[in-house]
Specification:
heterodimer, A: about 775 residues, alpha+beta, seven-stranded mixed sheet, 19 helices, 27 strands, about 25% strand, B: about 325 residues, four-stranded antiparallel sheet, 13 helices
């Protein structure tokens, strides 16, 4: 359990938006032949910007985009048919001879003294192990007190999932409830129960100059003050967290892990199996979603390994759905109170914010305010408020969606306060032309030009009103020298590429094959990508949108070397120089030579060709923007909010697979919309119970909620590969909030933005209008 | 779920023989025998350990109970095992009882409609998240407190609540009540037929542990839709879901009108999602009778329908919402 504190700490690091700060220089002059590049480093899925030293020149380069035949095309995923037909085998699907099913018992209270009697459970037929998860470093004479609602306290392994559940219920667990804090208010109350030994207020930091900000605020022409409240959001991975540990005694084991980090799991599981790394193979054939929550093995993975070690039988431990809500991480909630001022001519003059991150026993994350927009003077105070709930984890652009919602709302409120077009006000306060051109593009696509009411709500009598809102985003997405890739060409013409990297669902397997196919002038189907195994070359975890930018250059490097090796081998036999030969359309041509790929490969030795590639800085880039617009319909009678259209433009350097890149953009828009309109963890503050730890009551958007979506890749960005999984998930909910206001005049500052809040907002608006009329009448 | 004996009777008689005598006045939250039809509610309850019966009586092998049978007089007999999907697709229902068809098609998802039954839909237990949480020992589960009353009650009752504040989750029930449906309950000694409206009980009327009058030794076998009035029903079901794809009603309105020219001869109006039972509002029906369909009638009906509503801390929004739905329903029926 000690890992949780570390995850919390990583949240603080996630607040870095270093690329936005000017004056950032490399640490020292480069060595001869080297240069510094700034790129993204990820700790537990939280990104951080960092300078690294790389070769100044050399290495392969991407061909012109217009010359590409496989890459930068619209490629259906190579494993798509397998996935949609159910043939793809995920870790959860693994069934092995003699396999046992394990489950965790979670503490049903936010804080309790725990005493367990395991005997009755152990006696059940078909139950092979029942163990307490009491921390081993807790002295025997000390009380065991749980720290959060849903903390695992025991584990069982049995012959069927049903027996495992029976065993859980047969554990005689005595939970002596202690006072708890599950809300911010409870945690901040005088005499609040102490959540962590270091108190209820965690990391606190300040940014900016308070005095200068106050002065600028006092001088501003218009000032707004508002509080924005965001709930805890869950990752909702379709496949729950966990793994299958296949150990049957002896000195070898295989682990099937649902993870976004093959090597993050592999680095930990061997010792829990009592083995060395070389004796264990960690496999991630397919995995059902992570969104930042699935790096290490977690308590569930560690327990599975320890049970397998004890029982010498394969153990399957993937969390139950309810457990996913209680002990598998979340996006931290937050409360942000902002005072901000603008000048009449449309400049953001000052911003002062207090920000409480609500990451449970973890630290939570927040990208900081002001977010992206240029501000005259600012000051913010950020702190973590701890509650007796599961610690937050990285979640698709950690901290950014929270910051974006407040920032885009502030920008909108200020634009309204000075009576300025909300798009124009944004454009006037962006320091970078890329954001400006992107915002102008989404404005065009969403139909802003012809929109009737730009500065305020629709004041007509129509019950259904439309509004438009905007938002911008930023992310790193750079690569690092973390991947080693092998490419093989066999004498039968078969081409395979090997990387330990996992496919988080982003299409990794497809672009890995596509890069090699492009290099060899082959079709996508001619190349087999073998990924998701610790037996292959090392690779980074899929966090911070860094997979593509780290892996693709290494694949390209390996493929490029294989191509050169092949031509050097063939050229003398064919009586030409290597540089005369070209590879295209499955043939090798030039210098009078024209032979098919297979025919050429038949001339290789039985050992074929094997090459290894590493990361090449020139093939990747770092630092992206992004802009989004949403068109929303609001039924002012029922409070129904329907998102009609979303447009998102994203720069990402070279999009390896246009179809997959668009899919990422769509997925980001959907996740942000669902977050904005539906998602919220609900915990009863008095009972300390989570009331919606299921997919009925924890609502997410379904097919009927899908708007028309227009995902646009910013092709003006001519850099190398940059990840784009995260930025499209940042600005959607803020844009929707602003579109709702633009439609009907109700400013929803609290998410999720549901019909009840809108209806009450409309009632308040009408009451305000009545009050104003009556007030005016009274004076007259 | 806890292990139980599964009984598969081939006839109603065999099924009834498996049922325990009613413990009149001594009901407990723990029922020893549960009836299984589509299982869309019961399986969830079993898995969540909200019920732990010793015996489950599966009704699906009993022949004939799945039929939907129109009679020559225009009435329709609906077997308790008819699926919600079958009801939604039935031609006779679509012809004469639009409100019921629309209600059926608004239920949950296609998968659930394909399996869930009419009888099960009417007998389903509340969705209140306190009731559904095993560790919250609420009034409905034999505890002493309705946690929703002073708790997180956004989805709870604004009408008819107390001492429990659940809302009845059925979509079919408001539609059937509006249409004046009758329900047949078969017991060991014979059967009784009553207006569906009388089937449901407020927490303040019957046992707070139950939502209806079905005794532990009875089986709901049949629903009868009476023949429409001369000229037929003009009817509709308007349901508001927080999430359109798949949800229970935050509020819903079943409205059936019998028209004479463009004047309302008779109106039948029943609200769903706002009260512990389908909430028929005769005041709103009276407010509509003899009027033409227009915005003023819609407003008056909405006001009358929500008269006496007492919102809890987090559900005052249901009042304007339900009023708006009443108005929408009425105005949607302006054209034949």
């Amino acid at each position: 359990m000690s890992g949780r504190g570390a995850e919390g700490l990583a949240g603080a690091l996630g607040a870095a938006t270093g690329r936005l700060q000017d004056g950032d220089q490399p640490p020292r002059p480069p060595k001869p032949g080297k240069k510094w590049v700034k790129t993204t480093k990820v700790v537990d899925g939280h990104e951080r910007e960092e300078w690294i030293e790389v070769d100044a020149a050399g290495g392969p380069s991407w061909p012109e985009r217009s010359a590409m035949r496989v890459l930068h095309q619209r490629l259906p995923r190579v494993d798509g048919p397998e996935k949609v037909t159910g043939a793809a085998r995920y870790p959860h699907d693994v069934r092995l001879p003699g396999m046992l099913f394990a489950r965790l018992l979670l503490c049903p209270h936010p804080c309790a003294k725990v005493e367990l009697d395991l005997e009755a459970a152990r006696k059940l037929r078909g139950v092979h192990a029942v163990r307490s998860l009491r921390p081993s470093d807790l002295p025997a004479d000390e009380d065991w007190i749980t720290r959060y609602l849903g903390q695992p306290v025991a584990a069982v392994a049995a012959e069927t999932p049903e027996l495992a559940e029976d065993a859980l219920r047969a554990i005689a667990a005595r939970f002596d409830e202690r006072p708890f804090a599950v809300t911010r208010e409870q945690a901040l109350a005088p005499n609040a129960p102490q959540v962590r030994s270091d108190g209820n207020l965690g990391r606190r930091n300040e940014r900016g100059d308070r005095e200068a900000a106050e002065k600028a605020l006092a001088a501003a022409d218009r000032v707004i003050e508002a509080t924005y409240v965001l709930p805890v959001q869950h990752h909702l991975c379709l496949e729950p967290h966990g793994l299958v540990a296949d150990y049957r005694g002896g000195e070898e084991a295989t682990v099937y892990a649902s993870t976004q980090g093959t090597f993050a799991v592999h680095g930990e599981v061997p010792r829990h199996l009592g083995l060395q790394a070389g004796q264990v193979t960690t496999l991630v054939p397919h995995m059902g979603g992570g969104f930042g929550s699935k790096f290490g093995p977690g308590v569930e993975g560690v327990t599975a390994c320890e049970l397998a070690r004890e029982l010498k039988r394969p153990v399957h431990l993937l969390l139950a759905r309810a457990d996913e809500f209680l002990t598998a991480g979340n996006r931290s909630g937050c409360v942000q109170t902002v005072r901000a001022g603008a000048t009449k001519d449309g400049k953001l003059a000052a911003l002062i914010a207090t920000i409480d991150r609500l990451g449970g026993i973890g630290g939570g994350s927040h990208a900081g305010l002001p977010y992206i927009y240029t501000c005259g003077a600012s000051f913010s105070e950020i702190r973590s408020v701890h509650t007796n709930t599961d610690g937050s984890r990285a979640f698709r652009a950690p901290g950014h969606p929270q910051a974006s919602f407040a920032m885009e709302s502030v920008m909108d409120e200020l634009a309204c306060a000075i009576g300025m077009d909300r798009l124009a006000f944004r454009l006037a306060n962006l320091g970078d032309d890329v954001w400006k051109r992107q915002l102008e593009r989404v404005a065009r696509e969403i139909g802003w030009e012809g929109h009737r009411h730009k500065a305020g709500p629709d004041l007509s009598d129509a019950p259904v009103k439309e509004g438009i809102g905007f938002g911008v985003s930023t992310w790193g997405g750079g690569g690092r020298p973390e991947c080693e890739v092998e490419v093989r060409i066999a004498r039968d013409g078969g081409v395979s590429v090997f990387s330990g990297s996992q496919d988080l669902g982003t299409g990794t397997r497809t672009y890995v094959a596509a890069i090699v196919a492009e290099e060899f002038g082959l079709a996508l189907g001619d190349v087999t990508a073998r990924i998701g195994s610790s037996a292959y070359g090392r690779a980074n975890g899929s966090g911070g949108s860094t997979t593509a930018a780290s892996l693709a250059p290494a694949v390209k490097d390996a493929a490029h070397k294989a191509r050169e090796a092949l031509l050097e081998r063939l050229a003398p036999e064919l009586g030409v120089r290597p540089d005369q030969l070209a590879l295209a359309d499955g043939r090798i041509t030039g210098g009078g030579v024209n032979i098919g790929w297979k025919e050429a490969c038949a001339r290789l030795g039985a050992d074929g060709i094997t090459t290894h590639g590493t990361w090449q800085a020139e093939l990747a880039g770092n630092g992206v923007h992004g802009a989004l617009a949403a068109r929303v319909q609001v039924d002012t009678l029922t409070g129904e909010i329907a998102v009609v259209k979303m447009v998102c433009v994203q720069d990402c350097g070279l999009a390896l697979n246009v179809l997959a890149a668009e899919s990422q953009i769509n997925g980001g828009m959907i996740q942000a919309m669902s977050y904005g309109l539906f998602e919220e963890r609900v915990i009863d503050p008095d009972l300390g119970l989570m009331l919606n730890a299921n997919l009925d009551d924890y609502k997410i958007a379904g097919c009927r909620e899908m708007p028309e979506m227009l995902p646009l890749i910013d092709e003006e960005d001519r850099r190398g590969v940059i990840g784009l999984g995260e930025p499209p998930a940042i600005a959607g909910h803020g844009a929707i909030a602003n579109a709702i206001h633009n439609a009907c005049g109700v400013r929803l500052r609290e998410m999720p933005m549901t019909a009840d809040k809108l209806l009450m907002g409309l009632e308040a608006l009408r009451a305000g209008a009545r009050g104003a009329r009556e007030g005016a009448g009274g004076r007259g | 779920m806890k292990a139980f004996e599964l009984v598969l009777p081939a006839s109603l008689e065999q099924a009834l023989a498996e049922l325990p005598e009613p413990a009149r006045g001594r009901e407990t939250a723990r029922e020893s025998v549960k009836l299984l039809a589509g299982g869309q509610d019961l399986l969830g309850e079993l898995k969540e350990h909200l019920v732990e019966p010793e015996r489950v009586v599966d009704l699906k092998r009993i022949p004939g109970l799945e039929r939907i049978e129109p009679a020559p007089d225009g009435s329709i007999g609906i077997g308790a095992l008819a699926t919600v999907a079958a009801l939604g697709e039935d031609a006779a229902v679509a012809r004469g009882f639009a409100v019921l068809r629309e209600a059926a098609l608004s239920v949950a998802s296609p998968q659930i409609r394909n399996v869930g039954t009419v009888g099960g839909n009417l007998c389903q237990r509340p969705r209140c998240w306190y009731y559904r949480h095993e560790k919250a020992l609420c009034l409905k589960k034999g505890g002493s407190e309705c946690f929703a009353h002073g708790g997180l009650n956004k989805y709870n009752a604004i009408l008819g609540g107390g001492p429990s504040y659940i809302v009845h989750p059925s979509d079919l029930a408001p539609a059937l009540v509006a249409l004046g449906a009758e329900v047949t309950l078969r017991g060991k000694g014979g059967e009784r037929t009553l207006a569906l409206e009388r089937f449901f009980t407020l927490p303040s009327e019957g046992s707070v542990l139950r939502e209806n009058v079905l005794a532990s030794d009875e089986i709901l076998t049949r629903v009868k839709l009476p023949a429409p009035p001369a000229g037929g029903w003009r009817s509709t079901y308007v349901k508001f879901k927080e999430r359109g794809s798949y949800d229970f009603a935050l509020a819903s309105v079943a409205l059936a009108l019998s028209m004479q020219g463009d004047t309302i001869r008779e109106a039948r109006l029943c609200l769903g999602g706002v009260a512990p039972i389908p909430w028929r509002v005769s005041a709103a029906e009276a407010a509509l009778a003899g009027r033409k369909i227009d915005a003023e009638a819609a407003r008056a009906a909405g006001e009358a329908a929500l008269k006496g509503a007492e919102p809890l801390q987090h559900n005052a929004y249901k009042i304007p919402l339900a009023k708006a739905l009443v108005a929408k329903a009425l105005l949607a029926l302006a054209k034949a």
